[in-house]
Amino acid sequence: MGFFEKLVELFSTPEYIDSLLHGFLLTIEISFFAVLIGFILGLIIALIETGKHKWLLPLKFICRVYVTIIRGTPMALQLFIMFFVIFAIRDFPQIVTAILAFAFNSAAYTSEIIRGGILSVDAGQTEAGLALGLSNFTIFRKIVAPQAFKNIIPSLGNEIITVIKETAIVSMVGMYDLNMAAKDIGSGQNMASYVVPMFVAALFYLAVVYLISFAIKRVEKRMRRSDARA
Amino acid sequence: MQGRKFDQNIEISVRGLKKSFGENKVLNGIDFDLYDGEKVVVLGPSGSGKSTFLRCINRLEEPTSGEVFFENTLISDTNVREMRAKIGMVFQHFNLINNLTVMENLTLAPVKLKKFSEDEASKKARGLLKHIGLSAKADAYPASLSGGQKQRVAIIRALMMDPEVLLFDEPTSALDPESIGDVLDLIHEVVDKGMTTMIVTHEMNFAREIASRVVFIDHGRIIEEGEPAEFFSRPKTPRVKEFLDKVL
């Protein structure tokens, strides 16, 4: 059987379609919640690191250590540590462990992106707010955050894409994600070929990444309205 | 400072103000009073501490030591925001908020600080915009404005808060020669209406025209002050003579 016959077989066997969709759904679930939680944690870390109060110093130190460790060790190792050390609890839902592993990892990278974004906003913007008597909170919400966000959209998009693709390593701890589904279908007796299922899985990843890139371009364009010189 | 009696009409009072950036001592003890209705022009060579002096008044720079009083009240951590709302400031680089339209720039602070309702603020903003001939720019973003337009919007943004005092930090230094005139005209008009003002500037002719008092700062100290006619024609210190010889 050739490539196309196998392709037809894959798409005409409900069992295979089921497996792929099942795996795809898990990939999306892990990615979505990991990005979301990673962003919130990353924002908190970035706010601590760019904060000016003296009492933030010990927290800043903790954040620095955290970011250094996460960025300095392999994601696969972090996943193993989460599965076999930190959450080595009987019946603890695997998906939660996986989400947290990717969220904690993404938080470190996202915090650096957000920190860079906050620092990229001209000090004069903050000073204008201060001179008018606005509170630090209002200055952040109305002035610094929107400008920082606009500047970091491309990097944030990149981070989202990285997380989605990196979740493929959950197959290493036996979770049935899109990557695992492809391997599973390929090793089955009927298919007995890895090429087609892996090709299809690749298309799934590619489609999601493409959609997200497209959405991010749109958001970026909207946010750049205030830059227009005309 | 115990037992010091303040005149009722002093707006801003500075005592023993010092400011260092690391090893670099920028202000070396400044004592200064700004009376109601005064138009003080602060002159001095670059790096003399003029801008730092101005920025210490509304605490954009934290003084290393010394005190600043606004209407006889010591400016402290707890009241600084309230004080800033009454002390307007215009910056060298305009500092309009880039992500807000001209109208939003004008109304953000007065509405947030509950000085005016949304409607009152936008009505007042439209009036001021019309006055400076920029009504058409109400919904434009700052990026589409020229330097002179930005600075004039920045000036009316400060006026939106009905400040007691207006501080100008080199308001024309970042402008092209053509728009300097427009901005100076607007400052002139504001000052003529009786606004108590402090201006750091390098525009000597303008300084002579509008100042009720000139203050000369060098090496972080006020080394001479006086009425403009006196100051420009009969400077008392050799340092000011030398400065004026170079710039005039």
Description:
The complex is a heterodimer of chains A (230) and B (248). Chain A contains 9 helices and no strands. By secondary structure, chain A is mostly helical. Chain A has a single domain, classed as MetI-like fold (Orthogonal Bundle), CATH 1.10.3720.10. In chain A, 31% of the residues are buried. The model of chain A has no long low-confidence stretch (mean pLDDT 93). Chain B has a domain at 10-89 and 196-247: 3-Layer(aba) Sandwich (Rossmann fold), CATH 3.40.50. Chain B starts with 9 loop residues before the first strand and ends with a helix. Chain B has helices spanning 50-57, 80-86, 102-112, 118-131, 147-160, 177-192, 204-210, 228-233, 238-247; strands at 10-21, 24-35, 39-43, 65-70, 73-74, 87-90, 165-169, 196-200, 213-218, 221-226. Chain B is built from 9 helices and 10 strands. With 248 residues, chain B is an alpha/beta fold. Mean pLDDT of chain B is 93; it is low at 1-7. Chain B is globular and about 55 Å long. Chain B has a 6-stranded mixed beta sheet with strand order 6-7-8-3-9-10, with helices on both faces. In chain B, strands 2-1-4-5 form a 4-stranded antiparallel beta sheet, covered by helices on one side. The chains are: A mainly alpha (230), B alpha/beta (248). The A-B interface holds A 122, 124-125, 127-135, 138, 142-143, 146-147, 150, 225-230 and B 58, 60, 81-89, 91, 93, 95-100, 108-109, 112-113, 141-144, 157-158, 161.
Task: For this entry, give a set of tags.
heterodimer; A: 230 residues; mainly alpha; MetI-like fold; 9 helices; B: 248 residues; alpha/beta; Rossmann fold; 6-stranded mixed sheet; 4-stranded antiparallel sheet; 25% strand; disordered N terminus
Q: Provide the CATH top-level class of the domain at 10-89 and 196-247 in chain B.
A: Alpha Beta
Shape of chain A: flat
Order of helices and strands of chain A: HHHHHHHHH
CATH architecture of the domain at 10-89 and 196-247 in chain B: 3-Layer(aba) Sandwich
Q: How many helices of chain A?
A: 9
Classified by CATH, the class of chain A is: Mainly Alpha
- Name the CATH homologous superfamily of chain A: MetI-like
Largest sheet of chain A: none
